Amino acid sequence: MANQTTLTPPAVTHITELRSHFVRTRFYLGNSNIHRTVEWRCISGVKGWAHELVVKDGAVFTNPDPPAAGEPAYLVIVGRISNDNFFMTSDAGWRSSSFTQNFANARASCMVTAPPESLDHDLLKLDWLEAIRNLQWFQNQAAIKGFVDKIGLLTEESRDNVLVKIKHNTGIEGLEPGTPVDISSTADDTDDDDLGPEFDIANWPCWTNEAKEAIEGLKETHSVISIPIYGDNNKLVKPSQYCAVLECATVKRKSGNAEAPRSVDAFSADVYAIHVVKPAPPPLPSTPRKRKVSSMSPVSLPTKKHRLGMWCFVLLVTMLLIIMAVFILYLSSALHMP
Fold it and tell me: What's this model's pTM, rounded to 2 decimal places?
């Protein structure tokens, strides 16, 4: 852990208000009653064994515009960003490997762990424990009979330390032939402001030499969707600032050459939105399915419902390590067979 998190009284008040809002949505993973709100549903037309978490038929909501039964469930969890295996950067630290040979298929990722002990907010710590229990429960409910191993979402470093892995497609999406490369096509609504040239694939920052070379071959045929990170001003963070805003540390990627175990349930939580609610302190020395991205944080503004696919489990996470942030994620799971 790089730095201790300290929060001013206004920040604590803001976090408390956010938590209260999340609880009212009925999709907060820190709530033991969340099982009454969502359920797994098989995805038709998908090869293999695939499910998604959706709004449960008969679920009761108090908000005036409740989600319809069967819609993908957007879940909320509060935690903090871990420095371990941090690759939530614009190029995902990509280097060609047997798993990800093409840069267009690279996925940025990082680990989420419990709120820091220094944070005087015991309620969030209790919520984290409940959230992990709920995630484990959801995984068990979706598991295939006879399968023991579950990979991709939860990493148990110790009995008291469970991490949640979150991912984001690097945003490289193929275009239809003849379609011009236009970043405005990634705006959430037609009346959204242009995200600006910093978000165009022509100016997309890459840090590894391999990624710098690979993106050149994609600029005429692909568009880019940025990691939806929103600052404390609710504005979309520029891709060149991801590392600074999330206050990541440079770490070595663990070996990725081992094959997945035979016959396992594989889960994947994909980022929908990251909202910073506390700016990061001064940084430590460091090296630097198609979906639309809004220029404003969906945590603060009303948003459309988005269908996100596969074992679809959209997870909203508030990160509390060196920064405070809100993450909306999509959890997918697939069956791995030899």
Answer: 0.74
